[in-house]
């Protein structure tokens, strides 16, 4: 099992925006960490897409571990060799975390479960900027649940239950085809079922491009949702957070 030392930075969607990512990495270093955990839409489309980050990561001694969002090349990810910890190297000091993988930060169990549905799928081209592998399968969810309880969960999309996201979704849903909204909701159903089983205290996610903190009731148990903004955020405080091994903000 992958063993990390805290504190760690959790980062939101970068979408392959190298300039923003470089700034976020510098900011993470200034916060006193050597580890960034990224919640997806990292921007992994072609093998060379993120080469611009490698020199800075090596220079600062920072390693990025990332789960996938919906906007990644999932065909390419599926071909990568993985080690016994479920990691695939995607560049120097950059590693993709297989869906459903459990790892530890200072001995505390964390779960990574990437994937999500693209509500803008019909405006994209399969094999160029959209891949059907974006969806979490039932088998991947079952694998995530097979490890038992965890303290912190990283996902790209959010489980159901947030009132903040519900209000935002009502504003944006008329923009997207109903068939894709149904698929997106079904993906959130899967994440919610995983949360019910693995019982995290904290869930970090991206996808919605909103920085918020909310206590959400899942089966009458309070789970703290931490949503992160994207590369469009002004500054970095809404895109990255420094946390301890229990997911508490520092």
Task: Report the radius of gyration as a whole number of Å.
Answer: 17 Å
Query: Secondary-structure element order, as H and E?
Result: EEHEHEHEEEEHEHHEEEE
Instruction: Report the strand count.
Output: 13
Strand sequence of the main sheet, in spatial order? 1-7-8-9-10-12-11
Described by the principal axes of the CA atoms, the overall outline is globular
Tally the helices: what do you get? 6
Largest sheet: 7 strands, mixed
Strand content: 15-25%
Poorly predicted segments: none
> What is the first-to-last residue Cα distance?
25 Å
Portion of residues within helices: 25-40%
What does the secondary structure layout of this molecule look like, with pairings?
Elements: E1 3-4, E2 8-11, H1 18-30, E3 35-38, H2 54-60, E4 63-66, H3 74-79, E5 87-91, E6 94-97, E7 101-105, E8 108-113, H4 138-145, E9 152-155, H5 163-172, H6 178-198, E10 202-205, E11 212-218, E12 221-227, E13 240-243
Parallel strand pairs: 1-7, 2-3, 3-4, 4-6, 8-9, 9-10, 10-12
Antiparallel strand pairs: 2-13, 5-6, 7-8, 11-12
